[in-house]
Design a protein that fits this description.
With 619 residues, the protein is of the alpha+beta class. It folds into three domains: 6-57 and 70-302, Aldolase class I (TIM Barrel, Alpha-Beta Barrel); 416-489, Immunoglobulin-like, CATH 2.60.40; 496-618, Jelly Rolls (Sandwich). 20% of the residues lie in helices and 27% in strands. The protein has 13 helices and 30 strands. Strands 10-9-8-7-3-2-1-11 form an eight-stranded parallel beta sheet. It is globular. The termini are far apart.
């Protein structure tokens, strides 16, 4: 993402851009003002990729270049910091060769031993230090380093990074920048007869998240030649990573002008042609309906807007850190070797400058690790505090992230959340989050993870064994805090009784439907405006509160009314399961009587509830 020098702030404010108090406004070809985080409408139906598209995307994303989530550092967070001592010539001015190389040295000495290796140079490297709109190009419409910011050029920088045993990353925006067009007569490198006028649409339609570029017309043979020439240039400098920004569908734009899937395909092909292994990320807030395209043609994709607050701290909890808990679940089925869900920078190392409490910093890092997200910090690595360094270098937490299994929430969204996953060795990761404003006790049941009885528990943050826990674990957690455990069951007993939805009673339009990945290949759908599914004869040995796993399918965040024996109905929120062919599990607590019970799930309001695969009742 890009920001703006202070010299244009007043003019932009007068143009009507929405600003956050204390933050700098956005410039064309820079980050858009952020909308308030909201969930998708419960009645919305997403256009999930088909099973065939999913399979093709997974096959195209061959392992090798991005077997594990990326680890490293990115410049953008410091560029957004609204402090004169950091950005003396306005936001974005931090980025200079001198400042960057200090971060390279610091990462090499402090974080490289823990596995961090990428140094990613974000927007601004080709722009004037005091004039963001001034961009340096070569004679073929390709961006070059601004000579004031980087007097030795980008090959020198990449060589310096490589000299530390690290990898170098660079940034470009999608499309042909407006100022690179040059009346359409600028020649394309290594493409005789091709000019910039030969690669764009004749009506000069614009594209990307800021409308700062002309849209490239890939039906024209010269178009791919331009992308090839850009890829060849950054490869000749020695770069190992490219972030392509402002990509759509997504980035808060819709319509054919902003569909850049052909650009992404062209870039993937161009990078491959260089013969250099270049990791490829697309950004910034992409549309999940096209996840198959991102998976097939890139190694990572941003699922949200910038995590930075563009204020006097790097981030704030409410700005856009916490929204990741709402948005990550829907993307998790796409994470895996070849490509990863990018949650953005992990700014937990600078103490007060991060803008977070210590509990929030810990929760931030915990979610990224559980989600198998890329771990790249945007902190000032020369000023890491002891707590931040401890968070960023905890080897057990890093190993959790690097095993590459994307965890999911197992309790409905709310202030007390449980996330988790089954590890490669058969143990489980269990993360407890308190999203509320006050300290709270958060409980996790082993039944939510498909086992019962006793288990050995290790606290990953404390690095110590806690001994044996029977049936589950609980912890009192401060506001916005987290705890993280590895749990090893002593028995493989699932500890649940299963009741399939297709064998239940349905009413008011609810109906059995096919579901390829559901148990038995069936589910109950059309839970809308009173549509309901009722599980009768749910039998338990004695009265009490039971953990009930609801196996559901939904492409959107939704809700349903759940009750036992017609009493104590509770409105339960469900994260997106990641697609209409992919089930997920949410655990609810229900009071049941000894003997037979009836558990009902219904929509009750004129919005859709999730489809239901089955329920599992803990024994």
């Amino acid at each position: 993402m890009r920001s703006v020098p202070r010299s244009v702030a007043a003019a932009l404010f007068g143009a009507g851009l929405v600003l956050t108090l204390g933050a700098a406004p956005a410039l064309a070809d820079g980050p858009k003002p952020k909308p308030a985080p909201t969930s998708a409408s419960p009645g919305t139906v997403t256009r999930d990729p088909s099973p065939t598209q999913r399979a093709q995307a997974m096959a195209a994303a061959a392992p090798g270049l991005a077997d594990k989530p990326l680890m490293g550092w990115s410049s953008w967070s410091l560029q957004t910091l609204n402090r004169p001592e950091v950005n003396p010539d306005g936001l974005g001015s931090w980025l200079t060769e001198a400042n960057l190389l200090k971060q390279v040295d610091a990462l090499s000495s402090k974080l490289k031993p823990a596995g961090y290796e990428y140094i990613n140079i974000d927007a601004g490297w080709s722009r004037g230090l005091k004039s963001w709109d001034s961009i340096t190009y070569d004679g073929n419409a390709r961006e070059l380093a601004d000579p004031v910011r980087f007097p030795h050029g980008m090959k020198y920088v990449a060589d310096y990074i490589h000299g530390k045993g690290l990898k170098a990353g660079i940034y470009l925006a999608v499309g042909l920048n407006l100022s690179a067009y040059g009346s359409g007569t600028t020649p394309i490198a290594d493409a005789p007869g091709c000019t910039t006028g030969d690669i764009v649409y004749s009506d000069l339609r614009t594209t990307n998240g800021w409308d700062s570029s002309y849209k490239i017309d890939f039906s024209k043979p010269c178009a791919s030649k331009y992308i090839d020439s850009q890829a060849a240039l950054i490869a000749s400098w020695g770069f190992d990573f490219l972030k392509l920004d402002g990509v759509g569908p997504g980035s808060f734009k819709s319509g054919t002008n902003y569909d850049n899937r052909e650009d992404v395909k062209a870039w993937r092909a161009a990078l491959d042609k260089t013969g250099r292994p270049i990791r490829f990320l697309v950004s910034w807030s992409l549309d999940r309906d096209y996840a198959a395209d991102w998976k097939a043609n890139s190694n990572g994709w941003r699922i949200d807007t910038d995590v930075e607050c563009y204020c006097t701290t790097l981030v704030t909890w409410n700005n856009s850190v916490k929204v990741r808990w709402d948005d990550a679940a829907a993307w998790q089925p796409w994470a895996g070797p070849g490509g990863w869900n990018d949650l953005d920078a992990l700014d937990v190392g600078n103490g007060e400058m991060d803008g977070l409490t210590d509990a929030e910093r810990k929760a931030y890092m915990t979610l990224w690790a559980v989600a198998a997200a890329p771990l790249y910090t945007g902190d000032d690595l020369t000023e890491l505090d002891a707590y931040g360094l401890k968070l960023l270098t905890n080897r057990e937490v890093i190993a959790l992230d690097q095993q590459g299994i994307a965890g999911r929430p197992v309790t409905p969204s709310g202030t007390s959340q449980v996330w988790g996953l089954r590890n490669h060795d058969g143990s489980y990761t269990v993360a407890l989050f308190n999203m509320g404003s006050f300290p709270a006790t958060v409980d996790a049941s082993w039944a939510s993870f498909g086992f019962s009885g006793k288990a050995d528990v290790r606290d990953l943050w404390a690095g110590k064994n806690l001994g044996v826990r029977d049936g589950g674990i609980s912890a009192t957690i401060p506001s916005h805090g987290a705890e993280l455990f590895r749990v090893t069951p002593r028995s493989s007993n699932p500890g649940v009784t299963v009741y399939e939805a297709e064998n239940a009673t349905v009413a008011n339009g609810a109906a059995v439907a096919d579901c390829s990945l559901c148990a038995g290949g069936k589910k109950v759908g059309n839970l809308y405006n009173g549509g309901a599914v009722q599980f009768r004869d749910v039998t338990v040995p004695k009265a009490g509160t039971y953990q009930v796993n609801v196996r559901y399918v939904s492409g959107d965040p939704r809700s349903a009314l759940i009750s036992a024996n017609g009493q104590n109905a509770q409105t339960t929120a469900f994260f997106s399961s990641g697609g209409w062919d992919r089930p997920a599990t949410a655990t609810v607590s229900l009071p049941l009587k000894a003997g037979k019970n009836t558990i009902e799930i219904d929509s009750s309001t004129p919005v859709y509830s999730p489809d239901i695969d089955r329920i599992e009742v803990a024994r």
